[in-house]
Recover the amino acids of this structure.
């Protein structure tokens, strides 16, 4: 995932943006280069969370919510220097937009930015190349293709509740 630093920097009025990511993303030279190239005029508050992605997976695979993780993450982000000036946060992991609504309750009045739309376009392109496009009866909605182990009933229900149908493998 390419952290959506460029659109966040363009959107921010205060020029103080948060970067909520995995620890690996925060440490990568690639991320530092993106900040240098596209957010040189911004103060970027970086928080690498090692517990957020696993908690999100547990929520969507097993239905077990972890409000203490969401709250701890919000508290850690808001405890950073200049956080009170922050008006935009980059959700720099594919998992993080899945709890955007939960985070928005804990950190209101923030522009939340992610690269989900760009990722979706790329995945659609790859699926098309692989011949894994939706059948005629599946077109018109949102779809998911799960590779690897079979998804749990809870995960399938979570997708369906969001209007997402599973594609046949």
């Amino acid at each position: 995932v390419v952290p959506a630093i460029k659109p966040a920097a363009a959107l921010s009025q205060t020029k103080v943006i948060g970067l909520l990511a995995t620890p690996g993303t925060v440490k990568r030279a690639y991320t530092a280069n993106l900040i240098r190239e596209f957010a040189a005029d911004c103060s970027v508050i970086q928080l690498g969370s090692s517990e957020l992605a696993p908690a999100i997976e547990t929520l969507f695979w097993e239905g077990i919510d972890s409000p203490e993780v969401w709250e701890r993450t919000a508290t850690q982000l808001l405890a950073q220097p200049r956080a009170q000036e922050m008006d935009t946060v980059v959700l720099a992991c594919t998992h993080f937009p899945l709890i955007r609504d939960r985070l928005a309750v804990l950190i209101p009045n923030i522009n939340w930015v992610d690269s989900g739309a760009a990722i979706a376009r790329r995945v659609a392109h790859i699926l098309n190349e692989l011949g894994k496009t939706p059948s005629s009866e599946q077109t018109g909605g949102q779809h998911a293709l799960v590779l690897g182990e079979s998804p749990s009933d809870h995960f399938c229900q979570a997708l369906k509740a969001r209007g997402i149908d599973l594609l046949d493998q």
